[in-house]
Specification:
Elements lengths: L9 H9 L9 H12 L4 H11 L3 H10 L11 E6 L2 H5 L2 H12 L12 E6 L11 E3 L2 E3 L4 H11 L3 H4 L1
Parallel strand pairs: 1-2
Antiparallel strand pairs: 1-3, 3-4
Length: 165
């Protein structure tokens, strides 16, 4: 029984599962990691297909997927923006930086822009307090942020006008 929806590519899942000889629940995290790498997130229809093919209960799969922060059940943007809300960043203006990001992107923390360009998250700490206030985009750290710097950095990640047309 094929549970994959019209929007999901079954070939990606076929390739992922073919890398495993006998699939057990011990293989679940590596399988989910590969699925997320292949699809960008864990689509519901793909998770249900994994359950069907492996015999691992969908509830167990979702239990693992929701326990670990690395897994995402919704599509994410091309660029991941994380902004620190830890103590050092808070004291040095982090809340204002978060507000500017939200205003520039037109979304709240945990959301993705409609064009799938940006996903915005806030995190408890990014571990670089000396750079406060801090945001990270695609793993690149931007420290000592100001309201003006936020807009400049975000603009550097936006699609050029010729790509939009």
């Amino acid at each position: 029984m094929n549970l994959i929806g019209e929007n999901s590519d079954l070939n990606i899942l076929d390739d992922i599962l073919s890398a495993f000889t006998e699939i057990t629940s011990n293989d679940l995290i590596p399988i989910l990691q590969r699925i997320q790498n292949g699809y960008g997130y864990l689509p519901k229809d793909v998770v249900m297909e994994v359950s069907e093919r492996t015999g691992i209960a969908a509830s167990q799969i979702y239990g693992v997927a929701t326990f670990y922060e690395q897994f995402h059940l919704k599509p994410r943007g091309k660029h991941l923006i994380r902004c620190c809300r830890g103590t050092a960043c808070h004291v040095k203006g982090g809340p204002e930086i978060i507000d500017v990001i939200k205003k520039c992107l037109g979304l709240e923390a945990g959301e993705t822009t409609e064009d799938m360009e940006f996903t915005f998250e806030t995190v408890a700490c990014l571990g670089a307090c000396a750079l406060a206030p801090l945001m990270v985009i695609d793993g690149n750290y931007y420290g000592m942020m100001t309201k003006q710097k936020v807009a400049e950095v975000l603009d550097s990640f936006r699609k050029p006008a010729e790509e939009i047309a």
